[in-house]
């Protein structure tokens, strides 16, 4: 267990978090702190628990031991806390998960109208602003199924941003995309990072990691094996497992 | 963009012409292969055998006017029977002097149904319209004010009765079924157990049994002197029955919703109710329109079973009309007549469901 004292301005704090799927120990004693405006990139082989960890931060997965604090609120069984945290934490999924029965604009305004109780007009203005920001202002009235994968993922990012979250979680946002569409999504993410958003990204895009990450976290078999600023992480990894992983994904 | 097009080795070409005209269509659709040709000829032969006698019976040799059944016997259909009995078949034992009341009720039902079909109407306006409509139906049937004589529910019969049982059964059975389906997938074991138990119990019992129980057994459990109207009992049985069947259809749709949809809704901070209403149900219900309408059609026709507790629905009034000594034996005419009425309602539901499906799938699959 690390220090249980929250760092000043820590937006996300995981202390000794454990999780099991049945008997399988997926998260082992995870300690992680993310400060306001900090960008953390999490990488590791598949099955290492990185997605599970990031999904614990907004309680899509439940942790069984340890503490998780988000924006000063403790994540526990209290539904009020969970909903309060989810309002402040945006999430972007590998499979986009746009609502196919709603238009792009409706996808973007749904949560602001129903959760934040914004008037429709205001929600739509916000939505159009963020569509502009992710560079697809002209697709507002289309349905998700009519967009390319890259466009869908940018809509998904805009949908999260419309809730004006303090924190953005990205769970392998480019893994389901065709290669030529990865850049358009990463560009939006870089732009977001430059504006000071607190971000936790699970990704294998090491170029992106080098550009924006304040901190690299490497996970393997459910534990955090190594954490370091990107320069150090890429040039002088300490653990053998990190070295092996990096050589595999940077080889080509 | 332009230089890319120019450098393409094979320029875009028009598709090969499709065989046009009537002959082309015939060749492609009816005579494309030997087997297809044989099938086509077989169908034509069948029609040639079946159609002429049918037309002769139903139109050419048919008798349209006759003073009584004796004068109406010939080679053709006796449509005079329908002309004589249509009022009774449609409205049954409702006092003949007040026929306009059930007639208006049928018109109200048709209007409400047509209005409900327009998606632009969906919302509070439609709910108000339906509430007012159903109240008007009840007031007109029951009477007892404004100079309209009071008519006991035992005399409510024919098409209005069928429509009341079917429409109210679907209207209340559907939300009940949705709740059951959601309950069956609940995280709470008690809720889940109750819903599963209920659905399996009701589905495992014939509707006739439920009607019997509602009619004969329920009164035994009520305190002495307390009675519940027979029609109400039948209606409740219908709602309970429809709920169980519709629940399983809805559950099929709920299961087809990808996990990611629920996660996305959760991640945005939607509550369970918001998530269910805004994300899950619209998609789940749109997916199960065909089996849903199938069940609705089944429920509509199942109303004919209320004869078992001596309520006179449309089919039963037709059978009763056949018992008239002056007009005996015109079964085919009577069944063709009520069959046509059932069919037009069911066919309407079927066509409308196809239209809805197209609308809901707009922009989804591409």
Secondary-structure topology with pairs:
The complex is a heterodimer of chains A (252) and B (366).
Chain A: E1 10-21, E2 24-35, E3 39-43, H1 50-57, E4 65-70, E5 73-74, H2 79-88, E6 89-92, H3 104-114, H4 120-133, H5 149-161, E7 167-171, H6 179-194, E8 198-202, H7 206-212, E9 215-220, E10 223-228, H8 230-235, H9 240-250
Parallel strand pairs in A: 3-8, 3-9, 6-7, 7-8
Antiparallel strand pairs in A: 1-2, 1-4, 4-5, 9-10
Helix pairs in contact in A: 3-4, 3-5, 4-5, 5-6
Chain B: H1 2-7, H2 21-29, H3 34-60, H4 79-91, H5 100-117, H6 124-142, H7 159-184, H8 189-203, H9 207-221, H10 230-255, H11 259-267, H12 272-287, H13 289-302, H14 314-321, H15 331-360
Helix pairs in contact in B: 4-14, 4-15, 5-6, 7-8, 7-10, 7-13, 8-10, 9-10, 10-12, 10-13, 11-12, 13-15, 14-15
Tally of strands of chain A:
10
N to C succession of SSEs of chain A: EEEHEEHEHHHEHEHEEHH
Q: What's the mean pLDDT score of chain B?
A: 88
Shape of chain A: globular
Q: What is the CATH third-level topology name of the domain at 152-361 in chain B?
A: MetI-like fold
Pattern of helices and strands of chain B: HHHHHHHHHHHHHHH
User: How many β strands of chain B by DSSP?
Assistant: 0
Q: Which blocks of ≥5 consecutive residues of chain A have pLDDT under 50?
A: 1-7
Quaternary: heterodimer
Helix content of chain B: 55-70%
Low-confidence stretches of chain B: none
Main sheet summary of chain A = 6 strands, mixed
- Main sheet of chain A: which strands, in order across? 6-7-8-3-9-10
């Amino acid at each position: 267990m690390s220090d249980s004292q929250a760092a000043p301005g820590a937006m996300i704090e995981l202390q000794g978090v454990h999780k099991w799927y049945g008997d399988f120990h997926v998260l082992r004693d995870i300690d992680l702190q993310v400060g306001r405006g900090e960008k953390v990139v999490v990488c590791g082989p598949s099955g290492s628990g990185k997605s599970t960890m990031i999904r614990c931060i907004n309680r899509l997965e439940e942790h069984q031991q340890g503490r998780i604090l988000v924006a000063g609120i403790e994540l526990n069984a209290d539904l009020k806390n969970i909903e309060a945290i989810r309002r402040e934490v945006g999430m972007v999924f590998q499979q986009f998960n746009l609502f196919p029965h709603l238009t792009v604009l409706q996808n973007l305004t749904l949560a602001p109208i129903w959760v934040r109780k914004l008037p429709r007009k205001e929600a739509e203005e916000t939505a159009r602003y963020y569509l502009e920001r992710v560079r697809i202002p002209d697709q507002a009235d289309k349905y998700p199924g009519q967009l390319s994968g890259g466009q869908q993922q940018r809509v998904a990012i805009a949908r999260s941003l419309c809730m004006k979250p303090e924190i953005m979680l990205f769970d392998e946002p480019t893994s389901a995309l065709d290669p030529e569409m990865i850049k358009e999504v990463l560009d939006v993410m870089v732009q977001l990072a430059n504006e000071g958003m607190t971000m936790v990204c699970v990704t294998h895009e090491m170029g992106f990691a080098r550009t924006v990450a304040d901190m690299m976290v490497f996970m393997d078999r459910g534990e955090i094996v190594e954490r370091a600023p990107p320069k150090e992480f890429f040039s002088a990894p300490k653990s053998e497992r990190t070295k092996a992983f990096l050589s595999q994904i940077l080889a080509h | 963009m332009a230089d890319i097009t120019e450098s393409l080795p094979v320029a875009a070409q028009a598709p090969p012409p499709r065989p046009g005209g009537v002959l082309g269509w015939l060749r492609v659709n009816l005579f494309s292969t030997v087997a297809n040709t044989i099938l086509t000829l077989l169908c034509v032969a069948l029609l040639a055998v079946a159609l002429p006698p049918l037309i002769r019976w139903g139109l050419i040799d048919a008798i349209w006017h006759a003073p009584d059944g004796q004068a109406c016997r010939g080679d053709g259909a006796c449509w005079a029977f329908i002309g004589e009995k249509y009022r009774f078949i449609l409205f049954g034992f409702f006092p003949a002097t007040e026929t306009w009341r059930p007639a208006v009720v049928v018109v109200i039902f048709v209007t409400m149904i047509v209005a409900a079909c327009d998606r632009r109407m969906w919302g509070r306006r439609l709910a108000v319209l339906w509430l007012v409509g159903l109240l008007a139906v009840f007031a007109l049937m029951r009477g007892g004010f404004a100079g309209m004589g009071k008519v006991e529910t035992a005399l409510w019969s024919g098409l209005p009765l069928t429509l009341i049982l079917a429409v109210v059964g679907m209207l209340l059975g559907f939300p009940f079924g949705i709740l059951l389906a959601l309950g069956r997938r609940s995280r709470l074991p008690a809720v889940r157990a109750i819903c599963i138990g209920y659905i399996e119990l009701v589905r495992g019992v014939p509707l006739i049994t439920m009607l019997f129980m509602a009619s004969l057994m329920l009164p035994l459990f009520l305190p002495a002197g307390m009675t519940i109207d027979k029609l109400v009992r039948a209606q409740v049985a219908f709602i309970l029955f429809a709920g169980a069947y519709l629940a399983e259809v809805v559950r099929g749709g709920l299961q087809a919703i990808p996990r990611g949809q629920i996660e996305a809704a959760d991640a945005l901070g939607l509550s369970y109710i918001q998530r269910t209403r805004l994300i899950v149900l619209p998609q789940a219900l749109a997916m199960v329109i065909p089996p849903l309408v199938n069940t609705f059609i089944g429920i509509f026709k199942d109303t004919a079973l209320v004869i078992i507790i001596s309520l006179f629905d449309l089919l039963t009034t037709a059978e009763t009309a056949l018992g008239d000594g002056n007009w005996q034996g015109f079964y085919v005419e009577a069944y063709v007549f009520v069959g046509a009425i059932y069919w037009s309602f069911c066919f309407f539901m079927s066509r409308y469901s196809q239209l809805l499906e197209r609308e809901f799938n707009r922009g989804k699959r591409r």
